[in-house]
Amino acid sequence: MPATALTARALLLDMDGTLVNSNAVVERVWRRWAERHGLDGDEVLNVVHGRQGHASMAVLLPERSREQNLADNARMLAEETADLEGVVEVPGAAAFLAALRGLPHALVTSADVALSTARMAAAGLVLPEVRVTAESVGASKPDPEGFLKGAAELGVDPADCVVFEDSEAGVAAGRAAGMRVVGVGPRAGLYGPDAVVPDLTQVRTEPAADGTIRLHLG
């Protein structure tokens, strides 16, 4: 990948697939769910990444009520929070977060507080001070609400933010928020981000004297 440089005033970071590799548990939990509902596990996994669980369920079981999906989602979140086997950092995530100390950044995740806290700890990562979780928003990614809230909490214009995302729903949410998006991982380039890196070892941050953050990718 050719080297790319971007300038931002704040960074908004997804968790699963971007900072934390939780693929093993996501696959276990959602394949069990698919089997319970007579659905194809591969098709289910194509839908669930990046969205809140109840939003995925609404796509996969459109005849079900929102109340049923929310109740089922609460059970799934508890199951996911208890199952941390195989949860590790995306390569470079710890160093990336360490480099952002003192710089404007936020976690914007479709996980709730309990799940995001558990997964970040399991991966050995420090939680950013500013966090937008499932409890913070009324609409799941690909809706831009989470990223817009993150920008607002940091006091930064959306156009001055760069999003780090791995999923189709997440990239779409960043785009809809009017932000530039860096795709992380092998799938991310399929969804039209502004730039893509294989993992976070390929990202270097450089604080500038004018308060901006220079990102060197690749």
Topology:
Elements: E1 4-8, E2 10-13, E3 20-21, H1 23-36, H2 41-48, H3 53-60, H4 66-82, E4 88-89, H5 93-99, E5 105-108, H6 113-122, E6 130-132, H7 145-154, E7 161-165, H8 168-176, E8 180-184, E9 195-197, E10 203-207, E11 213-217
Parallel strand pairs: 2-5, 2-7, 5-6, 7-8, 8-9
Antiparallel strand pairs: 1-11, 3-4, 10-11
Helix pairs in contact: 1-2, 3-4, 4-6
Q: Can you describe this structure?
A:
The protein is an alpha/beta fold and 218 residues long. Helix content is 38%, strand content 20%. It has eight helices and eleven strands. Strands 6-5-2-7-8-9 form a six-stranded parallel sheet, with helices on one face. Helix 1 crosses helix 2 and helix 4 packs parallel to helix 6. It is globular. The N and C termini lie close together (6 Å).
